[in-house]
């Protein structure tokens, strides 16, 4: 019997199913994002936790950042999905901001599902001043682990700065206790890890400053506070959306479209009948 | 300016060659592991030859100068240095008899972030014992898959598969690869 030689079919066949399922998942996630659909966003969350999380453990980890830093990454032809997913995360962040954090990351999807299921009365909203300071912790953590890695080349530090290993169900007792504490805290402060601690989120936050397709703002947004109060991510400060904190959850964009809630439409619709009946031409009701 | 660029290009290529050619030695005297991956052998040669390998002897060549090797032991990193997992090569020591059957394998060093529950447990390397270079080595079929560490498991499996096939074709008698 001849010794077999590896063919392209041998290389591609084991990856085919994973690639198809990942494409389906990304398609659902993007469809939910473009349609601003709450229902499809929750479908995306469930798929993210179930498939990308517990089934594949395919999340962007600080380990991948380490791999880029010392140019030591998996072999491309055997890991096509790994690279396609990485490129998708970076490109989507440049195009729209932290979409990855908002609906594709399995851990973020899990804490958002927790928030949807848990009674709202348990929730504590941190005051904006504290929130603003706390949101900077993740940048400090990113800088700290990167410096630590470059100095020691010890990758195992990932165990102590991110909880993504939980989807692989492998951890020491200390790691599980730490995760337990984090999840209990998340019951009270929603998406605590994503907003304040995640080093990967911090890196994507830095990249998101390049965002090409930004969220539209009306001139009325300067005085109106509805979206700022609605934003679960503390990403709206007065008239501006802080790109690095925004995960493109669609909440404010759905408000913009709501002609019964957004002052922009309320003013416009109030002005229009008068404009068409009594006001002289040229003095439209635009604010 | 042109000269500077050429100097830089030359320096970079020399540097790259050195980095590529560098053999990472993690365990220069793996005596206990040699015995473990080739239990039938009583003596081993020093690491040598091209590609680098240990010769395994059934009788000690020191007492019997006519002793012939009964197989070889090699580091996967010497046979397939280009193979790497999530983060660098996984160093496996593999024993191969003259027929191309694996007599044993152990994982020595790795820098895989998720290695401690995938390739580190001894039962991973143990499953290669008794396989031949003609076996398919497909993760999930004849090699156990460890979910959520697929990059690491797949790379270690390829290292044993391709390392053994290369070692057999270059170092074993021609019957082994027939």
Give a written overview of the molecule.
- The complex is a heterodimer of chains A (287) and B (178).
- With 287 residues, chain A is mostly helical.
- Chain A folds into 2 domains: 205 residues, no CATH class; 74 residues, no CATH class.
- Chain A has 15 helices and 2 strands.
- A two-stranded antiparallel sheet of chain A has the order 1-2.
- Chain A is globular and about 85 Å long.
- The C terminus of chain A is likely disordered.
- Chain B has 178 residues and is an alpha+beta fold.
- Chain B has one domain.
- Chain B has a 5-stranded antiparallel β-sheet, sandwiched between helices.
- In chain B, a hairpin with a 4-residue loop joins strand 4 and strand 5.
- Chain B is globular.
- The model of chain B has no long low-confidence stretch (mean pLDDT 89).
- The chains are: A mainly alpha (287), B alpha+beta (178).
Spell the H/E element sequence of chain A: HHHHHHHHHHHHHEEHH
How many DSSP-defined strands of chain A?
2
- Low-pLDDT segments, ≥5 res of chain A: 275-287
What's the oligomerization state? Answer: heterodimer
β-sheet strand percentage of chain A: under 5%
Average pLDDT number of chain A: 92
Write down the domain tally of chain B: 1
What is the rounded distance between the termini of chain A?
83 Å
**Count of alpha and pi helical runs of chain A:** 15
How many DSSP-defined strands of chain B? 5
**Which ranges of chain B are low-confidence, i.e. pLDDT below 50, for 5 or more consecutive residues?**
none
Q: In angstroms, what is the radius of gyration of chain B?
A: 18 Å
Gap between N and C termini of chain B:
57 Å
Instruction: Figure out the total of helices of chain B.
Output: 5
Strand order of the main beta sheet of chain A, please?
Answer: 1-2
The helix fraction of chain A, in percent, is 55-70%
Main sheet specs of chain B: 5 strands, antiparallel
The largest β sheet of chain A comes out as: 2 strands, antiparallel
């Amino acid at each position: 019997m001849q010794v077999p030689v590896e063919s392209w079919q041998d290389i591609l066949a084991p990856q085919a199913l994973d690639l198809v399922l990942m494409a389906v998942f990304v398609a659902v996630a993007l469809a939910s994002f473009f349609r601003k659909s709450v229902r499809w966003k929750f479908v995306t969350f469930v798929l993210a936790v179930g498939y990308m999380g517990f089934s594949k453990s395919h999340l962007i980890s600080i380990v991948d950042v380490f791999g880029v830093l010392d140019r030591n990454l998996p072999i491309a032809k055997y890991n096509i999905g790994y690279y396609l997913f990485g490129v998708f995360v970076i490109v989507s962040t440049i195009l729209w901001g932290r979409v990855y954090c908002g609906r594709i990351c399995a851990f973020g999807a899990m804490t958002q599902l927790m928030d949807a299921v848990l009674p709202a009365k348990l929730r504590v909203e941190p005051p904006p001043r504290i929130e603003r300071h706390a949101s900077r912790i993740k940048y400090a953590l990113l800088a700290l682990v990167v410096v630590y890695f470059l100095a020691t080349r010890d990758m195992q530090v990932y165990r102590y700065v991110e909880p993504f290993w939980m989807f692989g169900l492998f951890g020491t007792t200390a790691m599980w206790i730490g995760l337990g504490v984090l999840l209990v805290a998340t019951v009270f402060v929603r998406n605590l890890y994503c907003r304040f601690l995640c080093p990967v989120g911090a890196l994507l936050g830095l990249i998101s400053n390049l965002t090409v397709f930004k969220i539209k703002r009306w001139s009325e947004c300067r005085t109106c506070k509805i979206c700022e109060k609605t934003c679960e991510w503390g990403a709206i400060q007065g008239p501006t959306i802080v790109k690095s904190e925004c995960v493109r959850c669609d909440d404010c964009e759905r408000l913009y479209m709501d002609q019964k809630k957004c002052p922009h439409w309320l003013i416009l619709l109030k002005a229009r009948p008068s404009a068409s009946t009594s006001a002289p031409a040229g003095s439209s009701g635009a604010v | 300016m042109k000269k500077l660029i050429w100097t830089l290009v030359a320096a970079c290529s020399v540097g790259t060659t050195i980095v590529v050619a560098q053999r990472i030695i993690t365990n220069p005297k793996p005596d206990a592991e040699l015995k473990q991956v080739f239990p039938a052998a009583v003596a081993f040669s020093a690491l040598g030859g091209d590609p680098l390998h240990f010769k395994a002897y059934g009788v000690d060549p020191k007492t019997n100068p006519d002793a012939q090797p009964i197989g070889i032991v090699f580091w996967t990193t010497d046979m397939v240095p280009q193979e790497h997992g999530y983060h660098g090569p996984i160093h496996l020591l593999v024993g191969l008899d003259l027929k191309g059957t694996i007599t044993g394998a152990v994982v020595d060093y790795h820098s895989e972030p998720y290695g401690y529950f995938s390739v580190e447990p001894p039962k991973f390397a143990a499953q290669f014992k008794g396989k031949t270079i003609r076996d398919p080595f497909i993760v999930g079929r004849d090699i156990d898959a460890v979910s959520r560490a697929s990059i690491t498991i797949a790379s270690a499996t390829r290292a044993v598969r391709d390392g053994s096939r290369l070692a057999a074709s270059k170092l074993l008698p021609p019957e082994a690869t027939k």
